[in-house]
């Protein structure tokens, strides 16, 4: 009886460890965004919501300034709270040529990403609409 109980306990422990390892792999592949690998980082824009409660910080990441591939990250911040960590609501891989420069008020702004608040809860970043309470856009997730 004791040998059977010991086998069951060991089997459950092995299955639990395997499930934890699979979970860590999935988190690393589909959820974690590691920006430490990028050598060129540029804060493109900070756009406040119509009600003034939220701000979206748009950052462009590249391996180098002349890289062919760029990544656009959108972090959502509460304006009234300085201690809350920003929530990443947008992560997109694009060709660097898709990120253009804009002349606004006689100033040339490089690495321009289009950001438009549709309403207090919805923002359109680079032509992709995201509800800030329910959605997260990540190009790696296809579901």
Task: Tell me what you see in this structure.
With 143 residues, this protein is of the alpha+beta class. The protein has two domains: 1-32; 40-131, no CATH class. Helices cover 20% and strands 43% of the residues. The protein is built from one helix and ten strands. Strands 1-2-3-4-10 form a five-stranded mixed beta sheet, with no helix packed on it. A three-stranded antiparallel beta sheet has the order 7-8-9, with no helix packed on it. The chain is elongated, with a radius of gyration of 21 Å. The termini are far apart.
Poorly predicted runs of 5 or more residues: none
Order of secondary-structure elements: HEEEEEEEEEE
Compute the number of strand runs: 10
Q: From the alpha-carbon coordinates, what is the Rg to the nearest angstrom?
A: 21 Å
Q: Describe the strand arrangement of the main beta sheet, using strand numbers.
A: 1-2-3-4-10
* SS element count, helices: 1
Largest sheet: 5 strands, mixed
Arithmetic mean of pLDDT: 86
Q: Kindly report how far apart the N and C termini lie.
A: 46 Å
**Which quaternary structure do these chains form?**
single chain
Helix content: 10-25%
**Overall shape:** elongated
Structural class: alpha+beta
Percent of sequence in beta strands: 35-45%
Describe the SSE topology.
Layout: H1 2-30, E1 40-48, E2 54-62, E3 69-78, E4 87-95, E5 100-104, E6 107-112, E7 115-117, E8 122-125, E9 128-131, E10 137-138
Parallel strand pairs: 4-10
Antiparallel strand pairs: 1-2, 2-3, 3-4, 5-6, 7-8, 8-9
Key phrases:
elongated; 10 strands; 1 helix; 143 residues; alpha+beta; 3-stranded antiparallel β-sheet
